[in-house]
Design brief:
Elements (H helix, E strand, L loop, with lengths): L17 H8 L8 E4 L2 E5 H9 L3 H7 L6
Antiparallel strand pairs: 1-2
Family: Belongs to the glutaredoxin family. CC-type subfamily.
Protein name: Glutaredoxin-C11-like
Subcellular location: Cytoplasm
């Protein structure tokens, strides 16, 4: 089976700072939390839930070797 690593970064700074604006530029609003699966940008927590509802989350996790069946 494939191995995966979890990476959680805690970000700081003022709301409206450079990191906040960069994440908003990637389509995240609110800008955190930001989710990547298998090194690919997914979006915000809302995007993850939408992906689950439309049925694409499971395949993304399988492709990233985060889950297997």
């Amino acid at each position: 089976m494939g191995r995966h690593q979890d990476l959680v970064l805690r970000v700081g700074g003022e709301p409206g700072g450079a990191l906040d604006w960069a994440l908003r530029g990637m389509g995240c609003n609110p800008s955190v939390p930001v989710v990547f699966i298998g090194g690919h940008f997914v979006g915000s927590a809302r995007d993850v839930i939408s992906s689950h509802v439309d049925g694409t989350l499971k395949q993304r996790l399988i492709d990233a070797n985060a889950i297997w069946f």
